[in-house]
Amino acid sequence: MVYADNAATTKLDIEAFAAMKPFLLDAFSNPSQPYSFSRTSKKAIKEARETIAMCIGADPEEIFITSGGTESDNWAIKIASCGGHVITSAIEHHAILNSCIALERCGGKVSYLGVDSRGVVDVTALESKIDTSTRLISVMFANNEIGTIQPISQLAEIAHKHNCLFHTDAVQAVGHVKIDVHELGVDLLSASAHKFNGPKGIGFLYIKKGTNIFPFVDGGGQESGYRAGTENVASIVAMAIALKNNCEHINEHMNKVYALENRLMSGLYDMKLDFIRNGADMRIPGNVNLSFRDFEGESLLHRLDLMGICISTGSACDGVNTQISHVIHAIGVPDDYAKGTIRISFGKDNSNDDVDEILNAMRKIML
Ligand code: PLP
């Protein structure tokens, strides 16, 4: 099998996996208990929080463990609270877009920033959308479909000029490009472990010290009383190891996946197919989003699947209609190309052989 869908999820880091086992089998205690048996798990969470914080330039008490990117995004948007005004972009993940809809249901107001044909948000339009009720501006670091990286520090600066909080959904970026929360100037940042070779169902929200927040999950005193529930110790430990391992080799991994992308692109250009490569030049490493003229993305996905290759599409098929994704729609890909959109996303475990297999399969299907 060739797995080229690393934007959907990544393979668990083997060291992270090994580190989970003791906390599932032996040191299984509830970290909140006062007896000495719980010391090991309590210490492990403390160390994991320190490691995560170090990887993004934060302080440990600014890291709040969540169940993943979706929860972190929900929490960030709900910090704006009912009645507040949020500004976000048209190409966010549904974890943000649907949280915004929920906010509107309880009396909040949401404004959307448009993007250009590369998927870069309209920075100049931001100031005109800010009003006295604006509490939060949320723009994703890198888009999950087309990979475009946004001018985050510029956007955060505008937000702060108007006394608004700034959140970024960095789920596709953390562990793949260098992230320093101070350099970015963000107040809130979402991350998800399974996107950086950690386990599924675990993530974190960075919340800058001094940010006015209220508990997201009410209950016990875990996560400083802001997100209650007995901690998933094994996954927290594994998340920290996976992140550290990725961050220590970030340049090496970036160079590797850029080389894989280039190999794929030159093979595709040689095939002389009619296609558009979506996204900006400043994009997340490994992302190749392509719209082929007069092809069906869904059909390509299934035919590649039959040949043992996992990729993704830019559309969701409901059996009757093939719907173009909101991202492909927002960047204005022409209709005869849009429905032929696929996303190939390479990760550190892919090889030149994987690229060649994908190219061979595409040659068989498309020529
Ligand atoms: N945000 C972005 C940009 C994503 O790509 C994803 C997952 O695909 C999420 C949020 C949701 O993350 P999770 O799967 O951890 O809930």
UniProtKB/TrEMBL annotation:
<keyword id="KW-0408">Iron</keyword>
<dbReference type="InterPro" id="IPR015422">
    <property type="entry name" value="PyrdxlP-dep_Trfase_small"/>
</dbReference>
<keyword id="KW-0808">Transferase</keyword>
<dbReference type="InterPro" id="IPR016454">
    <property type="entry name" value="Cysteine_dSase"/>
</dbReference>
<dbReference type="Pfam" id="PF00266">
    <property type="entry name" value="Aminotran_5"/>
</dbReference>
<dbReference type="GO" id="GO:0031071">
    <property type="term" value="F:cysteine desulfurase activity"/>
</dbReference>
<feature type="domain" description="Aminotransferase class V">
    <location>
        <begin position="2"/>
        <end position="357"/>
    </location>
</feature>
<comment type="similarity">
    <text>Belongs to the class-V pyridoxal-phosphate-dependent aminotransferase family. NifS/IscS subfamily.</text>
</comment>
<keyword id="KW-0479">Metal-binding</keyword>
<dbReference type="InterPro" id="IPR015424">
    <property type="entry name" value="PyrdxlP-dep_Trfase"/>
</dbReference>
<protein>
    <recommendedName>
        <fullName>cysteine desulfurase</fullName>
        <ecNumber>2.8.1.7</ecNumber>
    </recommendedName>
</protein>
<dbReference type="InterPro" id="IPR020578">
    <property type="entry name" value="Aminotrans_V_PyrdxlP_BS"/>
</dbReference>
<keyword id="KW-0411">Iron-sulfur</keyword>
<dbReference type="GO" id="GO:0046872">
    <property type="term" value="F:metal ion binding"/>
</dbReference>
<dbReference type="InterPro" id="IPR015421">
    <property type="entry name" value="PyrdxlP-dep_Trfase_major"/>
</dbReference>
<keyword id="KW-0663">Pyridoxal phosphate</keyword>
<dbReference type="GO" id="GO:0051536">
    <property type="term" value="F:iron-sulfur cluster binding"/>
</dbReference>
<dbReference type="InterPro" id="IPR000192">
    <property type="entry name" value="Aminotrans_V_dom"/>
</dbReference>
